[in-house]
UniProtKB/TrEMBL annotation:
The protein's required cofactors: FMN
Keywords: Flavoprotein, FMN, Oxidoreductase
Cell inner membrane in keyword set: no
Family note: Belongs to the FMN-dependent alpha-hydroxy acid dehydrogenase family.
Membrane-spanning residues: none
Coiled-coil stretches: none
Gene3D superfamilies: Aldolase class I
Name the record gives this protein: Alpha-hydroxy-acid oxidizing protein
Organism: Plantactinospora alkalitolerans
Top-rank taxon, per record: Bacteria
PROSITE patterns named in the record: FMN_HYDROXY_ACID_DH_1, FMN_HYDROXY_ACID_DH_2
InterPro entries given in the database record: Aldolase_TIM, Alpha-hydoxy_acid_DH_FMN, FMN-dep_DH, FMN_HAD, FMN_hydac_DH_AS
Start and end residues of each FMN hydroxy acid dehydrogenase domain: 2-362
Length: 384
């Protein structure tokens, strides 16, 4: 990557990736379900969160360091699980995993990774394994065993994909995986590679593989099968957050799958505070979907999150510059977070969680003709 023309924001990497990737691969990465209402809502909602900075506090040693799942991290961020990363760069998940290792943050390896989990953990760094519940439960639990044996530090069960949402870009493109990209962790059919003229081959493949019968009882069986920390990804309702705690999860990821599942689902940042309140400090709560900057990370922290997952921006960096590109995205994010924290007089992440925020109600369904007013949100009180 030419450092003299180096992108300065995630948006710069987005533009670069769009220019490099084929149209159908770009649509697969960038697109969402339906009319992509929820993709837009994620950004609108994040941009409606305004921080109330404090002043006259010593930030000369402002630090982004924190912990996730009880382990130290250089910033409260983990790489979100993103499938088939070899679509955008030959090194795929190996490059992204090395970049996160260098940045001191966890990498979440996807079930549908294009590189086997054993190779990803061998690249070094902290790795969590994202699990889809397959129709073959024995194959699902075998993935958990493989993740443990490979040295993964947590299991993240994604619960919002009984089948893939109607991603219209992929349907219109008849999108199928190229021959050199495959789901490296599972024994599978060739359905994801077969163009039939009847929509997305990737969606057809996931319908064959994923179980639509996943229920809360699976969490109990999963807990019995592994001693690793258990994370549940894809919750938006506070009632589900409370129930997840009852089933012994160690963390919840508040996520609408980046707008790729139910179109019209609530923006993740809007759902975050109520889930934080519902779990009442009994487990960690992370935010996923729409995070693009260090300011977004600070917004999530101020609304009670333990940290965030970063998805598409890392893929943009990977597409533009391989491992150095993904590394630069993480460097920028940390610099932006430290800058935002310092300007808000937050000397550390704990102070960031005490910030107040204003919410612009116009972004949250205020009726036409009414006068939108900002709403002051007190910082969440997180026991312990």
């Amino acid at each position: 990557m030419n450092r003299s023309a180096e992108p300065a924001t995630a948006a710069d990497f987005e533009q670069g990736a769009a220019a490099i990737l084929s149209a159908e691969v770009w649509d697969f990465i960038a697109g969402g379900s339906g009319a992509e209402t929820t993709i837009a809502a994620n950004r609108t909602a994040l941009d409606s969160v305004f921080l109330v900075p404090r002043m006259l506090r010593d930030v000369s040693t402002c630090s982004t360091r924190s912990t996730l799942l009880g382990r130290p991290v250089e910033m409260p961020v983990a790489a979100a699980p993103v499938a088939y990363q070899r679509l955008v760069h030959p090194d795929g998940e190996l490059a992204t995993a090395r970049a996160t290792a260098a940045a001191g943050v966890p990498f979440v390896a996807a079930t549908l990774s294009s590189v086997p989990i054993e190779q990803i953990t061998a690249a070094g760094g902290r790795v969590w394994f994202q699990l889809y519940w397959l129709r073959d439960e024995s194959a699902t639990l075998d993935l958990v065993r493989r993740a443990e044996d490979a040295g993964c530090e947590a299991i993240m069960l994604t619960v919002d994909v009984p089948w893939m949402g109607r991603r219209l870009r992929d349907i219109r493109n008849g999108f199928a995986l190229p021959a050199h990209v495959r789901a490296a962790n599972i024994v599978t059919t060739s359905a994801a590679h077969e163009r039939t003229g009847q929509g997305s081959a990737v969606a057809a493949h996931t319908s064959q593989e994923f179980s639509p019968a996943l229920t809360w009882s699976a969490l109990d069986r999963l807990r019995q099968h592994t001693r690793l920390p258990l994370v549940v990804k894809g919750l938006l309702a506070p009632e589900d957050g409370a129930q997840a705690v009852q089933h012994g999860v160690d963390a919840i990821v508040v996520s609408n799958h980046g707008g790729r599942q139910l179109d019209g689902a609530v923006a993740s940042i809007d759902a975050l505070p109520e889930i934080v309140d519902a779990v009442h400090g009994r487990c960690e709560v992370l935010l996923d979907s729409g995070v693009r900057s260090g300011t977004d990370v600070l917004r999530a922290l101020a609304l009670g999150a333990s940290g965030v997952l970063l998805g598409r921006p890392l893929i943009w960096g990977l597409a533009v510059g391989g491992e150095p590109g993904a590394t630069r995205v993480l460097e920028l994010l940390r610099a932006e977070l430290r800058d935002a924290m310092g300007l808000a007089a937050c000397e550390n992440v704990a102070a960031a969680r005490r910030l107040q925020t204003f919410r612009r109600l116009a972004a949250h369904g205020v009726r036409s003709g009414s006068e939108p007013r900002p709403m002051l949100v007190q910082p969440s009180v997180i026991p312990g």
